[in-house]
Amino acid sequence: MQNTRLNRLTDAIAEQTGQWLRNPWRRISVMVICFLFGTFLGVAISTIAGQEANWDISVAFMVLVVTEIISWLAYRNVGRKTKNPLWLDSLNALKIGVNYSFFLLAFLLGS
User: Fold this and answer.
1) Angle (nearest 5°) at CA 89 between 7 and 106
2) Are 70 and 92 in contact (CB under 8 A)?
3) The dihedral of CA 66, 72, 78, 16: what is its sign?
4) In which region does residue 84 sit, left (phi positive, over 0), alpha (psi from -120 to 50) or beta (all else)?
5) What is the rounded distance in angstroms from the CA atom of residue 90 to the CA atom of residue 21?
6) Mean pLDDT taken over the chain
7) CB 69 within 8 A of CB 34
8) Is the pTM above the cut of 0.85?
């Protein structure tokens, strides 16, 4: 690509954001926000799918497939010493929050 002002500006913003997120406390805060958003998303998915009774099986299958894909991506490098990128850790935290909210709602409903 050409080295335009817009390209330089977006590259500089991406670099500054990356340096800002290298701080461990900021990384943890992003992970906690993703976990909490995952719990909200899980409640929203179960509520929306519960309104239409014929969507339950389809939504459960889609959530299962997405969960397994995220787990495969996040845990495929367990033996290596490299750290996962922030977007993958955030996606994993979102997945954990969704699963947590599903279990919590199942316990609340007694099913």
Assistant:
1) 130
2) yes
3) negative
4) beta
5) 12
6) 89
7) no
8) no
HEC sequence for the chain: CCCCHHHHHHHHHHHHHHHHCCCHHHHHHHHHHHHHHHHHHHHHHHHHHHHCHHHHHHHHHHHHHHHHHHHHHHHCCCCCCCCCCHHHHHHHHHHHHHHHHHHHHHHHHCC
Structure tokens at 61: 């299958």
Q: Which among 37, 46, 54 is positioned nearest to 94, based on CA atoms?
A: 37
Residue with the two structure tokens 């994993």: 92
**What's the Rg (C-alpha) of the chain?**
18
pLDDT at 34: 96
Residue 96 burial (CB count, 10 A)? 19
Q: What is the pLDDT of residues 47-81, one digit of tens each?
A: 888 887 788 888 889 999 999 999 999 988 777 77
